[in-house]
Specification:
The protein has eleven helices and nine strands. The radius of gyration is 19 Å and the shape is globular. By secondary structure, the protein is α/β, with parallel strands linked by helices. α1 crosses α5 and α2 crosses α11. The structure holds phosphoric acid mono(formamide)ester.
Length: 310
Amino acid sequence: MSLSVKHLLGIKDLIPSDIELILKTAGQFKEVLQRPIKKVPSLRDTSVVNLFFENSTRTRISFELAEKRLSADTINFAASSSSVAKGETLIDTAKNILAMKVDMVVMRHSASGAPHFLAKHINASIVNAGDGINEHPTQALLDCYSMTEKLGTVAGKKIAIIGDIMHSRVALSNIYCLKKMGAEVVVCGPPTLIPKHIGSLGVNVSYNIRETLEWCDVANVLRIQLERQNKPLFSSLREYAMFYGVNKQLLQDIKKEVVIMHPGPINRGVELSSDVADSDNAIILDQVENGVAVRMAVLYLLAGKKEQMI
Ligand code: CP
């Protein structure tokens, strides 16, 4: 089996069998990562450049580790210390890097559509590591992998995505992924942080955090993205935490177990209290761990390798 796409630009472009193949391959790589020697030679003939035009901790480290575990040659690029700071364009930057015979590009950019633009102009596989408020496909895949690991399947499960849906590429990629895999999805947050036509993606909308938590099996809690809000969309962080923050008291009141997820970085005390983030119900660090195996799977499959070769 192989992927139906040459690039991973978004979950929107994937068919369910692509997602199933990535998750299955990630499971095989997770097994590799439990071994004393956590490295395979699969991509020793492949060079990957990590082009990060926007800050990142988890995604950048996770991709770099995945590439190293696959024995790929990796090059790291940070826009702040590159010739972008002297005015070089995105295309010129990429073409110059590819002139050095790079096979794959992992790219994060603050502009929605930047990796799609690059994919049209250069001859290398592009992996979107987060583009503006559009998509963050590997985050959705690792979230889906982590939910499947915890619940057995996501098909038929009730998943709530809570918080700043409007500015969240994680929300959009999660919605596409979960709907393709047969989950029921509710988005919950203040009306100003929920796009008007989100229902057209097959999700339901709730403005009530307690009802949402009573309904769901999993709560994927998102960061309030103040850096993407031009104007204030709620009166204060304190008020946001009071009405939409997930805290211990709320979870005790609803008297049921809910799996808590967060893509990171967490605004502790705003969208999630520390006692919940650090509780046994939270699988936040499992998400981070699974990210390496999922990104290994994505790189491996986009490089055209077959599952039986692992
Ligand atoms: N989840 C996520 O994308 O985190 P980083 O911004 O640290 O990469």
